[in-house]
Structures
1.
Amino acid sequence: MKIGIIGAGNVGTGLAKHLVPRGHDVMLSFSRDVGKLNADAAALGASVGTVAETVHFADVVVLATPWTVTADALSQLGKTPPTRILWDCTNALKQDMSGLLVGTNTSGAEEIARLTPWATVVKAIPPFAELLHSPSMLIGGKRMGVFVCGDDSDARAVVAKLVNDIQAEPFDAGPLKLARYTEPASMLLVELAYTGGLGPRIGLSLVRDTAASAA
Ligand SMILES: NC(=O)c1ccc[n+]([C@@H]2O[C@H](COP(=O)([O-])OP(=O)(O)OC[C@H]3O[C@@H](n4cnc5c(N)ncnc54)[C@H](OP(=O)(O)O)[C@@H]3O)[C@@H](O)[C@H]2O)c1
């Protein structure tokens, strides 16, 4: 697939690092440092474009920007963006990471959907970038769980496949409004990692008794 990533930081480059070797064609955009953007893209086997070019190029647009500059990034889309799936990776973090700026009577994902009427938004917050950039995405032999929310089941399936391609385990969490609860779960991980002393080699796992739910 053609994957256009807005935000070429820890997460954007970390996703590219997994997606390019799995055969995806990746374009990176949105950096204040064009030299670094070009160098990172070349090292990853990705191309570079403006935000508008990235959206036109992509089958799936990945939003991987700090929350406080996300509206700015989306304002660079041009007049009539084409219809696209938008994989929202953002955490609506305060700049000092002390909490969330949005929730739980709405979600970052729903606010993004309001800003992007051209997009089918799917929320799926990836594992910590330290894991994406580390030699293995597995901890104790297990993949990190990623909740996938969105109102279009086909779009959820597309993003779930990409989550699988980054060596994480997708969980279909249903409609976009469920992001009101998955986003705070990611905030909990941020707290545990950086305030609670656990560090970023942590993630979520969902335990389910499939035999009991089938009965
Ligand atoms: N880091 C994680 O472990 C993690 C995990 C899950 C989700 N997330 C979420 O994913 C999103 C991206 O996180 P990240 O860690 O990849 O962020 P990051 O490393 O800070 O990357 C931000 C990207 O946005 C670009 N940017 C352009 N203008 C900017 C500005 N005015 N201020 C800051 N950045 C600007 C940066 O470019 P230049 O710096 O090159 O200019 C960079 O390419 C955030 O919403 C975060 O909460 C992060």
2.
Amino acid sequence: MGMALYDPEHGYYARRGAETGFRELGRGGDFYTSVSVGETFGLLLAHRIAREWETTFDRAQTFVVVEQGGHDGQLARDVLSGLREIGSPLLDGMEYRLVEPREPLRKVLEESFSIRPEPQVQIVDSLDAAWASAGIFLCNELLDAFPADLLVFEGSGWRERQVAWDESAGRPVFATRPLREEFAGFAAELGVDFPEGYVTEICPAVDSWMAEAARLFDRGLWWIIDYGHERADYYLPQRRTGTLRCYREHRLGDDPFAFPGEQDLTADVDFTRVEEAAARMGLQKRLFTDQHHFLIEAARPWLLSIEGKAPGPATAKRLRQFQTLTHPSTMGQRFKVMELRRG
Ligand SMILES: C[S@@+](CC[C@H](N)C(=O)[O-])C[C@H]1O[C@@H](n2cnc3c(N)ncnc32)[C@H](O)[C@@H]1O
């Protein structure tokens, strides 16, 4: 999964982004995100960022928003224009750092921000380089793009499903292998109350990522927005085929070996793993909710500002976006928000 997504030459994100100017998202791409729905997501995050800054941060300290997985920088643009629209004094001294470790993609981003500048935006190559004493970290649909490993319950025990090469067919296939030592503790925690052939995922990449991300601020908030579940819900015996899936041109597929480097591969996030990794790094969970509740709360000042007025076309468009982002049948319930804090 790591190679299919990130191989510098053939990987889906590494290649498509630089080649196509990040056209894998949105209508002409392979899948939608809350960012590609429109500017309303960024506007609502701007409201929430402004409120947090006013109520929980020391105004004398430089405040930095750090975003990882920010893709073409659209969310950065939407948040900053949201802050401008609400007239937040935060804009004056703040910085917005986009973390992009891959050089070709960094170049595309730098070019885009030199053509349409945003003075607050800096593009950095690592989380370490984004360090600030105070701020908010945010990522939307970053963790679901981390490479996951597959576990399979077979013969009354847990094994691993790995990728092998079938010489005669000339293509990759799945092969079952003994469980790696490092997954034994997790498998023991899951137990053995699963049907034969049950497949699921585990994402150790979350741990190493959190070990870095949690070092970002002395005083800060971390917002992790993604589809996923708490562990008890993720590893339900009924979820027999796991959550790994593929997207290409808005069609959902279940063959991760099809179209290598040309389709997105993704798996739901185990938010309990995120919380545990965060706790090891000294962060506390402040909130875990769904996108519906998180955005409705964030939207309060905006909704009050338009209440009782006949909506013009621009407001009507935003209200439609708001509905897509928050309605339980679209993105409201599937997407979750975990808020972590230090200080
Ligand atoms: C599903 S896309 C989401 C894009 C964007 N956040 C949005 O919501 O529209 C996942 C993004 O995470 C990026 N990504 C994955 N691993 C990353 C890493 N270690 N650092 C920065 N970006 C990463 C991918 O290149 C891709 O742009």
